[in-house]
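JOB MANIFEST
job_type = single_chain_structure
chain_count = 1
residues = 164
[input]
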Amino acid sequence: MSTIVREGGCGCGHVRYRVTGEPIFVNNCHCTQCQHQTGSTSVVNAFFETENIAVLEGELSESTVTAGSGGPHIIMRCSQCGTALWSHYPRLGRLGAGLRVGTLDEPGSTTPDAVIFTSEKMPWVALPEGIPAFETYYDIREVVPPERVARVDSLLERRKAGEG
């Protein structure tokens, strides 16, 4: 079985990265916090184990904002142009990364598993057909296959044990 390999980078070309494997889950988030942080209507994040992401060239910088949970949301950016490439959220810490799908060379290579925080979406945004939509968040156990849930559980156990 071959492993999926995707590459991407920032807006100026300074940072290039590679991510291996399939995402654990992919969310299209419409919360007002994501709108503020991206300056757009929403963000599409593909969640991976951080160890599956490798920086090929360039330097990253970090910005920390407060997540909806109140914990630290660390945004990894290109040190030159500031493009947000991925985030570490409080629940998984640095063990998991929400990769900004729009920074992939082929952003259409992933499809969201869920559209979330539709209660906060801009009123003129149309939701895609065939993708489950939730007013707030959802239980991934009800949406993604068990083998992907097991990957999240593994990260949560590692986090609980003091990693990340």
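[summary]
The chain has a mean pLDDT of 95.
Helices lie at 32-38, 146-160.
exit_status = 0
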